[in-house]
């Protein structure tokens, strides 16, 4: 049987989970990632360039792995002694295990606005909802969003969440989850970024706890299984390295660079960034 050797970068919680849940299935194969179902958890084998994600295992040579092992949807997969056993071969990695960093961070107001400006410049023509950065964070007219049905539907709800102290978070989240295009719908990505930011900017605040609880309540029923897996993993403290890198930039500890996160999906990265910036705005406001 073919043995494919590579490096995998993964968070410590996912590695521990695999050691306790040894049998799974391939549920979706794409050119960018292989989704696996192990017990109740969906995991993603993808390219390491995405960084550590809440459900991800980052391969150094993902395209080579696809070519050699050729995993197909519906196949069984087993995890034993640190290796994955597929019908067409074995993935035997050297593990780079990363512990999540839960340290609180504080966004600087001028860097928050600079990041919003950069996002607005780079996402004016997306089919997603990232152009909402203009009316929500830069006090500009929503000219680029009026003909996008998802922007039009979500703008007043996002305004309510970010600006009103009396907002019904649970109802707002229920309305937004599942709204948008893609494997992870646009507003799911925004909610993910917002929760991730609030957990690090204001982990003990009432809105943070309310948003976390609302996502855990509604994600399993209001969106698809893969998107729900991301949302639930973040709600339970999962690590998202690309967002952590932006947070470090917003905190002034490293140079601010949004280019890597914008490479995630067709619009997912830009929408997660929008959610993160909205969390920063909420923190500054509070």
What's the quaternary structure here? Answer: single chain
- Percent helix range: 40-55%
Our count of helices gives 12
Structural class: alpha+beta
Largest pleated sheet: 8 strands, mixed, barrel
Calculate the terminal CA-CA distance, rounded to whole Å. Answer: 58 Å
Biggest sheet: strand arrangement: 1-5-4-3-2-6-7-8
The backbone outline, from C-alpha atoms, is: globular
Taking pLDDT < 50 over at least 5 consecutive residues as the criterion, the unreliable ranges are: none
Strand content: 15-25%
Tell me the series of helices and strands, N- to C-terminal.
Answer: EHEEEEHEEEHHHHHHHHHH
Mean pLDDT: 93
Spatial extent as radius of gyration: 19 Å
Q: How many runs of DSSP E, i.e. beta strands? A: 8
Structure description:
This protein has helices at residues 12-20, 62-69, 109-122, 133-137, 149-163, 169-176, 186-201, 206-222, 225-235, 241-250, 259-262, 268-285, and strands at 3-11, 23-29, 33-38, 41-47, 56-59, 76-80, 83-86, 89-98. With 286 residues, the protein is α+β, with helices and mostly antiparallel strands. Strands 1-5-4-3-2-6-7-8 form an eight-stranded mixed β-barrel. A hairpin with a 2-residue loop joins β6 (76-80) and β7. α3 (109-122) runs antiparallel to α12 and α5 packs antiparallel against α6. The longest helix has 18 residues, at 268-285. The mean pLDDT is 93.
């Amino acid at each position: 049987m073919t043995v494919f050797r590579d490096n995998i970068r993964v968070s410590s919680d996912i590695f521990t989970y695999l050691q306790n849940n040894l049998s799974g299935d391939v549920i979706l194969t794409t050119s960018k990632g292989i989704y696996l179902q192990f017990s109740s958890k969906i995991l993603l084998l993808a390219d390491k360039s995405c960084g550590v994600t809440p459900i991800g295992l980052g391969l150094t040579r993902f395209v080579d792995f696809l070519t050699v092992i050729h995993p197909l949807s519906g196949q069984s997969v087993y995890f034993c002694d640190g290796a994955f056993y597929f019908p067409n071969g074995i993935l035997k990695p050297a593990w780079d295990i990363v512990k999540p960093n839960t340290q609180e961070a504080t966004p600087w107001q001028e860097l928050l606005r600079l990041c919003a400006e950069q996002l607005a410049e780079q996402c004016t023509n997306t089919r997603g909802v990232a152009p909402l950065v203009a009316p929500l964070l830069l006090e500009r007219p929503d000219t680029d969003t009026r003909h996008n049905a998802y922007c039009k539907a979500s703008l007043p709800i996002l305004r309510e969440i970010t600006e009103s102290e009396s907002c019904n978070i649970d109802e707002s989240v229920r309305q937004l989850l599942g709204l948008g295009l893609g494997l992870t719908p646009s507003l799911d990505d925004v909610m993910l970024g917002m929760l991730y930011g609030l957990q690090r900017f204001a982990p003990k605040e009432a809105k943070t706890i309310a948003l976390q609880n609302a996502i855990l309540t509604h994600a399993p029923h209001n969106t698809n299984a893969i998107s729900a897996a991301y949302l639930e993993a973040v709600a339970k403290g999962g690590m998202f390295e690309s967002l952590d890198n932006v947070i470090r930039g917003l905190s002034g500890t490293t140079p601010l660079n949004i280019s890597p996160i914008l490479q995630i999906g067709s619009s997912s990265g830009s929408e997660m960034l929008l959610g993160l910036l909205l969390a920063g705005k909420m923190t500054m406001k509070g």
